[in-house]
Amino acid sequence: MTNAPENYEAWVLPDGVEKVSYVPDTKIENCGVFRLEREDHTLANLLRMQLIRDPDVLFVGYKHPHPLDHHIELRVQTSTNTRAGKYMPPEAVRVALMDLSAEISRLAELARRSRPS
Amino acid sequence: MPFGRNPGLDIKESSRCYMNFSLNGTDVSMANAIRRTMIAEVPTMAIDLVTVKENTSALHDEYIAHRLGLIPLYSENVDRFDYGFDCEKCEDYCAYCSVSFQIQVHATGDTAVRNVTSKDIVCTNLETEEWCHDVKPVHDSGDDAETGADSDGGNGILIARLSSSQRLDIRCIARKGIAKDHAKWSPMCTVSYRIVPPAVELVLEKLNSLLEQDAKEDLAVYSQGLLKVTNGFLQYEEPFLKGRIGITPDTTRRAGQLATQAGGKPSDIVRYNPEPERFDFTAETTGSMTPRFALLMALDILKKRVDNVMAHIH
Asked: Which Pfam families match (chain A) (predicted)?
């Protein structure tokens, strides 16, 4: 058991590891894969469903490569001709995260205020 | 917020260990994220390090250590503790990242059997830091008591039974943790939600007008408690209406077959509801905190995760 990884390494970001990294696709325009370190289906599925709501997102999908890997890979492709001009995947993800953050804040506020009758 | 939603959340019933709430105006992914976060990411305190000084009981040391770990500790002030692995104030454990307990029981000769329960777990750093006081074993999860920590109802959680002259002397260190590490740190017994209306429903009006009497009875038998025939009409049984059971693919297939035989189309008798109207949640805790508290913590944790990822997107 001496070289077994510590249990907390599954959910605590180790030193020197980047939380989010983005690798643009070499063949497809406006497309790339995000690697979210120490995240799981909780956030990945939330993010995927939120990105699908964006009409300028052409493709989004995620995978959790292996049960012993503690990261997820999120692939996003955005439309090349949007009305607003350039709209790259990082921008789309940021917008989705902003929406989610606002939604969760609202839910927390409602839960705090809600008193059972 | 270009693609945001305006969700609703309504707590219907809330007590010490049980809560009922409904979530609306949002998506399955949000309901599931809340469920997953409540189960696996809300921190609690649990006994993590056990030193056995003396154990002459019938149970071996590891067995008792495992049982101790599973005893819920009242954890609503868990935020005042640090995680053991990143506590800056100590190398091993201290009052900022742990609470110490001990169990010292000696079964004296006259009683036949001495039960060692959660009530024999005594906090040993009572004097040191005031926030350690509240972390106590939860003896029962009954809903009659007002607060978990002070409740004295029941006999406590049984740890071991000692016969005469057997002795147990154990030191325990409780640490903060989350259920991703070990399930003993989960505050929740159950968190489940029901999607309303169900994703797949049978169109009973259509089935009733289409099918012959014996076909209806065939379907009712086939559905295994989903449907019944009263006065010649198919109706849902009580458990389905209360959401305890769902529609199985087998029943749907059989209904489709019978409809085809009667000259209808399978697509007429099944209704698909792609947009859930609301999610009815049921949440139960072990007694380490109230479900309402766990929900509030879960939402805060989820928001922090989202914000953390947002801060790292370039």
From this structure: RNA_pol_L_2
